Structure of Lipopolysaccharide biosynthesis protein:
Amino acid sequence: MEDRRRGSQPQYNDEISLVDLASTFLKRRRVFYAVLFSALLAGIIYAMLMPERYDYVSLVKLAEKAPGNYIDNPAAIIATLESQWLPEYQSTYHAEHDQSIPFKVQFENPENTGLIRVVSEASPSQAEVVKQVHAQLIDELLEAQTAAVSSLKRNLERQIESLTSTIKMLEGSEGATDAGTAIAAAFEKRLALEVTLSSIQPMEVLAVSRESAGRKGPARSLIVLLAGLLGLMGGVFLAFVTEFASLVKAQLAEM
């Protein structure tokens, strides 16, 4: 009896051969082609219509009181640019144009240098606006640096004048004890101040809104290639999903 019951049970074959897979794929190849060509077409259209964007870079060298010794710390300058001068200009720009600046403005300081890089990624149509923004920020920085240089020079000149007066006074009192030592020390200090004064270099603008050689973002060929790969995978998947849905529909119709 038990053997008879076993023999009456239906036998299911769950194995799927490569021939079945190939047959299913060929049967639904139109779905595969439709998905693949649609993805490729979308990728080509996107690649052609994707706006070109470039990096626009402005570069300045901060004022120095000696080679490698900068009047203002580059990190402090960047903090001022980010927290004060840029927000002020953003407010002015919004008031004049009723919109925000249509690109980001970033500030960088290459390590161990007194260089400040102002970088914006924008399209060529925005190049003039980028130049205006960068120029305005550089003007603010130049004004601050010029004031710092003038203040340092005045301070050094006052110290030099004071030492000169001290030297003259000491030279007039030749009989004073240790006058010669004091005069020598004053001369040495005045010379050091004069060297510092002559070594001061003002801020230098090296570039304003210079366009990068290559455009930003992925290459158009890469976009088309990725679209083709996505279309290939999506086409295979949808071909088998379509066949599965067709079998389920047929099975439900027989019930």
Observations:
- Helices lie at 2-8, 18-27, 29-49, 74-97, 127-171, 179-199, 220-254.
